[in-house]
Amino acid sequence: MDPTDELHLVVTRFDRDTVGEVDIATEHRDRLRRVAMGTSREVDDAKPCDTLGHDGCMEITGVVERVERIAATRADDTADLAGVEAALKDVAALQSWLAGNKAALTSRMAELVPFPEKAIADCTRESSRDTAKERERSSTLDAAPSLADALDDARVTPGHVDEFTKATKQLEGEQRDELIDRLDTNGLLDVAAVASVEDWRRRLALEIKTIRADDWRRPPRTTPRRPSPHLDRQRRDVEHHRPIRPRHRHPLAAKSSTPPSTHCSPNGPPTPARAT
User: Cα–Cα distance between 33 and 37 in angstroms, integer?
Assistant: First the structure.
């Protein structure tokens, strides 16, 4: 039986919410480990798999172990606070793992069909808005492989990826590439692994400000900018002591039909004519 079918069988049995079936799932887990490793030897149970990496057996068995703990805690009416908290953490880890796989499958779908949003909506029964969000998330993970690995390993949540997507939309070109590089070079990914989504959003806003500030400190352009014809005209007017002409005349500005006239006085210089 294919390992994926084995996992589906285990999850289906858990849906019945009975404690007795946990032992059945444990038997499937042990056999699943041997199948995933491609060998019949027993796996050392003294080293349980707690990660959701890309390491074949580690990935599948990590999922199965979390499903076991979630099902056992849900079926246990006497579960204490620590047990419920651990189960919720397992749920969050599985959601991250599923989101990473869904993003990878979304990218694969985009390579196979011309309109992936419609095909994805037909498969998942989601709205067009949800599928568009999935496309953005998959594009972000394709551009940032280290972030994709962190999502698969449940070190970050889908919310962290979505906030990073929003941050990249505020930058363009080299600035966006700089933000992606900072995931590894500036320890930004380590911050996401321990920060909440709100704290991650604030940290990304700080990184964006820093990148923009650094961009202003870069050396000036080596190629001269194209001169402005309006600026050249103003310079010529100043050189010839002419009044600077406005660039645009307001359409509602009052227009005088005749230029202001002056008349001479016998006892002094010309004085402006008074309005009648």
Answer: 6
